[in-house]
Write a structure and sequence with these properties.
4-stranded antiparallel beta sheet, 3 helices, alpha/beta
Length: 419
């Protein structure tokens, strides 16, 4: 018998089914392309937002950096460009990303960004790949006082500022800046207008939250010569002097005597500039007092206030050292120590470029000062010490030096994005 042939209607149905399959297959291709293109456009929008955010952050950082370091020591555009690159993260591995930063003559800061990544059909649509171009211009509208600088920039492990146990800093309305890492351990707290670190700011005690990845702040006093008017060895050696009672009054000059003030005795400094070639130790219930004074410590010398010692100092009101109260020469890398909670006034700028300031007092330190600024290589706080940084500049007999405090920049308006 011959096989039975399909009916005409059956053959027609198969033909129609095949046509539908072919048409469906043809339709899938553009549909898949549309889905792929839609997905790419969504990603492109997200990447553009990332690039714009990076440019905005870098422009604001550049403008703020101009305020912080003043006109004589500004960061390079390359630093700002590197900051912007850090903000885009892994996107830089999927695209060719670059930023260009420039300072405007009007004090603004401009950051332009360009990213090129692969597009459809081997970068034919659009030709050469997707281009993401962004631009941000920031300008300063306010100067937030720069009150504390931890200058240690030895990365990645450098701890410019570290507070542990129940210690901390209270610097309301001020910038507390670390050129390295800024660490809060255990229950330590920092209450500041802005807390920021070039490295990492770690810990739960920042109020408000701290910023990591800030631009480095260069030494605002880098051009200042910090040295006695003549070498210490040219001054007669006064030996060691331990004072248990009574008062010693020192006139300005170079002091090559090691002073230990203890018991209920007092060391009173007359107005002027005092250059110490040996240590000054205030112990027990001794006291150190002086108004309109500068204390400069030569190499391998330091000031310490321990036990129940009392310290009340206000800085120079005029002259080359106007605005400064305690400084250490650049070759001085010893530690200045405060463990007494009776260090109530440190009015002026403390400048310790290569020195560590260790504060382990049981309570507030410097709370009686109208204003204080601290620039030290390392600032270490522990125990229950609370370093109080006031910023009541108006009416103070001690002027604020250019480069810090409310003299950190020349503009009087806050930061904003112009574009």
């Amino acid at each position: 018998m011959f096989p039975r042939l399909p009916s005409r209607s059956s053959r027609k149905a198969r033909v129609q089914s095949g046509k539908i399959a072919i048409m469906a297959g043809i339709a899938i291709v553009p549909l898949a392309m549309i889905i792929a293109m839609t997905s790419e456009l969504v990603s492109l929008s997200s990447e553009r937002a990332l690039m714009q955010s990076a440019a905005d952050a870098a422009a604001l950082s550049g403008a703020q950096n101009l305020i912080l370091v003043g006109s004589n020591a500004r960061q390079t555009p390359a630093d700002v460009e590197s900051f912007a690159m850090a903000q885009v993260g892994a996107f830089a591995s999927r695209a060719t990303v670059s930023f260009k930063a420039a300072q405007g003559s009007d004090g603004s800061y401009t950051v332009e960004g360009l990213a090129i990544r692969s597009s459809f059909f081997g970068n034919l649509v659009p030709k050469g790949g997707f281009r993401i171009e962004v631009k941000s211009i920031a300008e300063s509208m306010h100067v937030q006082p720069l009150c504390v600088i931890g200058a240690d920039d030895t990365m990645p492990k450098g701890k410019a500022i570290i507070a542990t146990e129940n210690s901390g800093i209270r610097a309301r309305n001020c910038i507390v800046h670390a050129n390295g890492n800024f660490e809060l351990l255990v229950n330590a707290t920092v209450e500041a207008g802005t807390s920021r670190a070039v490295g990492k700011a770690t810990g739960l005690g920042f109020k408000p939250a701290a910023h990591s990845g800030a631009l480095k702040v260069t030494d605002p006093f880098a051009l200042r010569n910090i040295a006695p008017p003549k070498p210490c060895h040219s001054v007669p050696d006064g030996g060691d002097k331990v004072i248990d009672k009574g008062t010693i009054t020192l006139s300005p000059g170079i002091h090559r005597t090691e002073y230990e003030i203890q018991g209920n005795s007092a060391l009173i400094l007359k107005p002027g500039e005092h250059y110490f070639c040996e240590d000054v130790r205030i112990r027990h219930s001794g006291s150190l007092q002086g108004n309109d004074v500068l204390l400069m410590f030569a190499e391998r010398t330091a000031l310490s206030a321990v036990d129940n010692a009392s310290v009340s100092l206000s800085g120079r009101e005029s002259g080359d050292w106007a605005g400064f109260v305690i400084v250490a020469t650049r070759g001085n890398d010893v530690t200045f120590t405060i463990t007494s909670n009776r260090v109530d006034q440190l009015l002026g700028t403390i400048c310790l470029p290569m020195t560590k300031l260790s504060v382990r007092a049981k309570g507030d330190v410097a709370e009686g000062s109208k204003w204080s600024v601290i620039v030290a290589r390392n600032i270490n706080l522990s125990g229950t010490a609370r370093l109080v940084i006031n910023s009541d500049y108006e009416g103070s007999p001690v002027p604020v030096p250019i480069g810090v405090g409310n003299q950190a920049g020349g503009t009087k308006v806050p930061l904003r994005l112009r574009q």
